[in-house]
Amino acid sequence: MVFPKFLADCMLGKLARWLRILGYDTKYSRYLDDPKIVALARFEHRILLTRDKALAEGASDVAYLISSSRVEEQVQEVIKAFHLPYPTPFPRCPHCNELLFDIYQEEAKREVPLFVSLTFSQFKKCPQCHRIYWPGTHWQRIIQTLSSS
Ligand SMILES: [Zn+2]
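Output (structure tokens, whole complex):
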């Protein structure tokens, strides 16, 4: 299944992290100016998510204007606008946007707190930053928040 890819502008870092955890490829840069971020969105065929009306109007071929200031609602806006299924079975690292891969409990045990390795059996790891995730981290919290809103 192919999902649209996103590029969050500098005001939407939190939204970017949530979209990644839900499994959507989302780039985020704090440092690009408007012309560069629009060029990057066009070049990589990403939908530019922004709360900047002028930016969205100036780049209406690639930009999508986010109206809410609350991240929970912003995620809902994106999911509705692009008919995204959620969560996808492929969560991404909220820091790196890399796809997480499954690791064995034995491997995770060496790197997570003891109570975590005793409580959870499913672990995922980021190939880039090597952070380990399990269903008790923000991953699950975000999915629950969205399901209840
Ligand atoms: Zn990572």
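The helical segments are 13-22, 34-43, 53-58, 71-81, 105-109, 114-119, 138-148.
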